[in-house]
């Protein structure tokens, strides 16, 4: 969901397997990556050598904050592998670290998932419905979407009593997002889906390719090295749009894309490539090059979060890397905050506001949180200027909402993502009203 820091979560993991897993995490926390990787099997040593383990771990800490507490390890089996599961409470959220071991006791896999106690039996985060959700007004059904060869599990939320509903397809922010765009205890995409369908709008959401097929990426580092916004997002959205138009009960002429963060940035490109969308909704869409966006985010974090400021100050390479990327001198295979320069270039090539302005017949709704530090009013104003005078556009700035469109006070901080909240009802009202008005 976040605009930057698209960490590709490590897929690697678990002796006594419980003790060995705990030791592995302790060495990572202490930045002793040579020692942490000493017990890797041959495949792990190839995929995640010490330097890459260090880079990935430090990127994770920058995004989620330091680990403040770990739970007691639990052991289970997956096929022939033994696995240890350890709850890790990062500053902004709780995750379960899964460390798996082969028959020789070597670490063969490691990845992080939302903490088990925050999930229902169906895998969704536990919490009460927002007050604007009325479950009597919609149904949900499982679907499979995505580009050929990349099946993605998802959910279609459909209003009751409507023969042909307008459909909004939700497009995630950066990183391996699930269908709810889960971050900590928050599920912005589920809020949107249930809120919009309570107001007569069908919604389709699905697990992102980098979430649903993480094992394929880990198994082939060359694929990860060449990933761009096309493979991460665009291909699957275009295939999903085409499939959605054939779904029963959906009006094929009223299919919309709602993109959040990176998804919002890419929505005009998706509309251009599809050519038949009824409209796009941009929520916290950026229009600046990645080096500028990242620099502003890091500067804000240093001001509002002392602990992360200390961690960021330890890494002297970020500023140099951003400067090289700005000057066009960074190598394509160089990693900056968990993603390759090759990836960042693909994002920089999308001049979103200019592209949106060139699509004269495309209805556009632009939403921005005034407390958002990841995407700011500078980006919002770029879209407002590019779309100035267009009769088929609308703009909403919510001064008290953050990047997830949740209400708050004062300067937003990364720690907010670890606190329960809901997408503000004004957003649900404005999006549903706008979609229904487009004919």
TrEMBL record:
GO MF, one example: carboxylesterase activity
Organism from which the protein derives: Paludisphaera borealis
Domain DUF3887: 21-110
Entry protein name: Esterase EstD
Enzyme class: hydrolase
Superkingdom of origin organism: Bacteria
UniProtKB keywords: Hydrolase
E.C. designation(s): 3.1.1.1
Record keyword rRNA-binding present: no
Domain Serine aminopeptidase S33: 189-404
Membrane spanning stretches: none
SUPFAM superfamilies for this protein: alpha/beta-Hydrolases
One Pfam family hit: DUF3887
PANTHER family: ESTERASE ESTD
